[in-house]
Amino acid sequence: MKVTARAHTNIALVKYWGKKDQQLIIPQTDSLSLTLDKFYTDTTVEFQPELKHDQLVVDGQVFAPKQMKKVTRVLDRVRELSNQTLYASVNSTNHVPMAAGLASSASAFAALALSASRSAGLTLSGRDLSRLARRGSGSATRSVFGGLVEWHAGHDDQSSYAEPIMENVGFDIEMLAILIDTKQKKISSRGGMQSSVETSPFYPAWREVVAHDMVAMKQAIQNHDIDQIGHLAEENAMRMHALTLSADPDYTYFDGGTIQAMNLIKGLRNQGVNCYYTMDAGPNVKVIYNQRDRERIINALAPSFGVNNLVVAQPGPGAHLL
Ligand code: DP6
């Protein structure tokens, strides 16, 4: 059966940065994110008797079998769950600048989990789908659901899954992505986070930061308090990035444009506009704010980055079939 699914990216407000188990992708800590409407991946999967190996095409580009290990891992799990051995063809289109810290792996593996499981005749619950997506990429665990989502770290395959906190976000939170550099990133999140776990002396403190932030963030969400959500998200992101600067060898995902954006946002804040920044494994900056302040924020950023590089996103839906 040929099945197409769509999944949207998510941006973490409390970041996932480090694994306990690299094979199963069990994270060191819980995390929490917002799924966005603007960036998504469409993936079509078909298991076919005539195939001699799995096939992957992403945005029209054919991948060699050894370039598609993460995809194979998810497909292997689907074969295991559905008790069959057929190979699959996978065709994926990203509506996300790839590998630019806009979490294309999150939407990609959530869309793959849904399309591949359905194509193999499985109807998984949201929780089980999130566990399957997790095999491909950690952040994909959360993209199975829409709105505000929590990933419970757990300790094994069964206990590490995502759960929606608020699927229909009933308040005016918005995220604006500043596209600073959409080229492929130099240090993968996978390699970067592992180096932070192994070499940053601050890693134990990070676990405590996240434990605190998960509680505070959920409270801020229940209060619909966008300022507090933004403040906590910015602080959490900066503490995550402190793990890259304190690793050995040290590294950073920021570039000049990242720092410039941070300064502009702080400047706006000093003028009384409540807006906050967050960054992932790339130089792009995402701004968190109340919808009503959109114009002022765009007007302040456009002269430096160009209005075409500012993308406004709102809470988006979970993975679904097309
Ligand atoms: C900074 O999910 O890309 O975006 O599990 O190794 O595939 P793997 O990593 P990935 O890491 C995401 C890191 C982050 C923070 C987050 O999304 O929570």
Automatic annotation (TrEMBL):
Cited InterPro entries: GHMP_kinase_C_sf (IPR036554), Mev_decarb (IPR005935), Mev_diP_decarb (IPR029765), MVD-like_N (IPR053859), Mvd1_C (IPR041431), Ribosomal_Su5_D2-typ_SF (IPR020568), Ribsml_uS5_D2-typ_fold_subgr (IPR014721)
EC number(s) on file: 4.1.1.33
Organism: Limosilactobacillus coleohominis
NCBIfam families xref list: mevDPdecarb (TIGR01240)
PANTHER family xrefs: DIPHOSPHOMEVALONATE DECARBOXYLASE (PTHR10977)
Identification of the protein by name: diphosphomevalonate decarboxylase
Key words of the record: ATP-binding, Lipid biosynthesis, Lipid metabolism, Lyase, Nucleotide-binding
Enzyme class: lyase
Domain of life, source organism: Bacteria
Mvd1 C-terminal domain residues: 177-307
GO molecular function terms attached to this record: diphosphomevalonate decarboxylase activity
Assigned protein family: Belongs to the diphosphomevalonate decarboxylase family.
Domain Diphosphomevalonate decarboxylase-like N-terminal: 7-162
